[in-house]
Amino acid sequence: MTTAVRLPAAGFLALLALTGCAIRPEATPSGLTLPSSFRDAAARQPAQWPDPDWWRGFNAPELNRLMEEASQGAFDIAVAAARVRQADAQARIAGAALLPTVTGGADASRRQTGGGNRRTTSYDLSLSASYEVDFWGLNRNTAAAARLSAQASRYDAATVMLTTQSSVANTYFDILTTREQLRVQEENLQAARRILSVIRSQVAAGVATGLDLAQQETVVAQQEAQLPSLRQSIAQSINALAVLVGRPPEDVQVLPGGLDTLRVPAAAPGLPAELLARRPDVWSAEASLAAANADVAAARAALLPSVTLSAQGGFSSLVLGTLLRPEAQFWSLASSVTQTIFDNGARQGRVELSRAQQEELVVEYRRAIVAALSDVEDALVALRETTAQEDLRREAASRAQRASDIAEAQLRAGTINLITLLNTQQTLFTARNQLVQARLQRLQAAVGLFRALGGGWQPGAARRP
Question: Which residues form the signal peptide (predicted)?
Answer without folding.
Answer: 1-22
